[in-house]
Amino acid sequence: MHPLDLLGLTGYFTLLLVVGYLSARRVQTSDDFAVAGNRITWPILFATLAASYLGGGASMGRAGKAYSDGYVFMFATCAFPVATVLVGLYIAPRLKRYVGAHTVGDIMAHHYGAPARLFSGLFSMIYCIGILGAQALAIGTVFNAIIGIEVSTGIVLGMLVVLLYSTLGGMWAVIQTDVLQFLMLALFVPITLLIGVQQVGGAEALIAKLPELHFSMMGDYNLSLFVSIFVAYLLGETLVPPYTQRALAAPDARNAKIGYTLAGVFGFLFYFISSTIGLVALVLYPDISPDQALPELIRNALPVGITGLVLATLLAVVMSTADSYLNSSAVVFVRDIYQCFIDPDVCDRTRLWLERGVTLVIGFGAILFALYATSIIDALLLSYALWAPTVLIPFVLGVLFELNCSRAALSAMLAGTVVTLFWKWGPLELEASTQLSALIAGVIANLLVFITVYRLFRRPTLITIER
What we know:
Layout: H1 3-24, H2 30-35, H3 42-53, H4 57-69, H5 72-77, H6 79-90, H7 92-95, H8 104-112, H9 114-146, H10 151-200, H11 203-209, H12 223-235, H13 241-249, H14 253-284, H15 293-301, H16 306-341, H17 348-372, H18 376-384, H19 388-401, H20 406-425, H21 430-434, H22 438-457
Helix pairs in contact: 1-10, 1-16, 3-10, 3-13, 3-14, 3-16, 4-14, 6-12, 6-14, 8-9, 8-19, 9-10, 9-15, 9-16, 9-17, 9-18, 10-14, 10-16, 10-17, 13-14, 14-15, 16-17, 19-20, 19-22, 20-22
C-alpha cells in the first residue's frame, strides 16, 4: 500500500478512537449508553440506521453474490429495504409509546410478561453475536485483500478498535461514528463504482462483456431458492435489536417514522451500487474469490491517495454494523437478563459499568465466531434463521394489535425454534428434501401456534400502553 493510502487509513482509525474518547465524557447514565438519551432526531436516525444495516453483507457480500450470480441476488434481497420502509411507516412510530423502553425485551415484557423478556433477550444476544461475527469476518477480509495480512489478524485488529470506542462511548459513540461512516459511504462507494465502470469502458461495454443471465431477474435461481432468500431478508433482519434500539432512541414518533423510512429508501440505491460493483469486478478480475470483488476493485482500480480513503470507507460500512450489534447485545444482556433475573435493584452506575464490561466479553466472543465462519453471507443467513422464527412474529403482533397473551408468545417462540432446528439439522433433512427453507418453516410454525394458542387463551381486555 502506498504511504499516502496508509496515512488515510491510519487517520480514519485515529478519528474513531478520538470520537470514542469524547463520547465517553457524555455517557453519564445507562440511558446515555443504551439509547443516547432519546435525543436522536430523524436526520441522525436515518444516517445511523443506513450505516448500520449496510455492513459487510450489503457491501462485500452483495458485491460477491453479484460477481457469482448476477443481479438476481440483489432482486431477492431487496426484500430488506421493503421491510424497512414498511416498519418505518407502520411500526417504528408505535415504538415510541413504550416509555423508558431500551430493548425488544422491554416491549415483549410489556405485552407477554417476564418469561417472554427472558427468551427474547437470549435470542437477541445469540442473533447479535452471530451478525457481529459476520461483520468481524468482513473486517478481516478487507484487511487481507488490501494490506495482505492474514484474515484472522485483520479480524482481531479491526474488532479491537470497534471494541474500544463502543465500550467507552456506548450508543453516543456508535451513532457519531455511524454518521461519519455514512458520509464516507455515500461519497466514496459511488466514486468506486464510477471509476470501475470507466475502466471497463463504460456502461455499454460492461453489459456487452457479461453473460445475459447476470442481468436476469431470476438468474439461474429456481423459484424456491429465490423465495427462500427473499423471505430470509424480508424477515431475518426486521426489527432486530439494534434497529429497534434506534427507533427507541428517537425523541418522538415523527422522528422515528421519517428516519426509519428514509433509511429503507436509501437501501434500494445502495444495493444497486454494491451489486454493480460486483459485476465490474467480474469483468476486470474474473479469477478471484467472489467475496474479494469489492476489495480487489479498490486495491487495483483506484488511484493512489483515493485507495486509502475508500478502504477506510469499506471498513466504515462494516464497522458501523459491528458497533451497532456489539452495543445492542450488551444492553440486551444487562437490561433483559441481569437486571430482571439476577439483580433487580442494580443501580444505574453499576448497570453502566456492566454494559461496558459485557461489551468487551461479547466482542471477544464474536471474534471467535468469525474465525470459524465460512463466508459472510453464510454467517448472515445462519443468524437470520435464529430471529424471524422466534421473536419477530409475537413482537410485531403485539405492537400492531396490542395483544397480551403470554402463553401464545412463549408457545410460538418454542414452536418456531424447534421446527427451525429440526428442519435444518434434523435426521430427515427436510430443508433439502422439501426445498423449503428452515426459516420459512419456522416462521409458519410460529405464526400458526401463536394464532391457535391466542384464540384459546386470550384475555378479554386489551392492555393500556403508557403514553
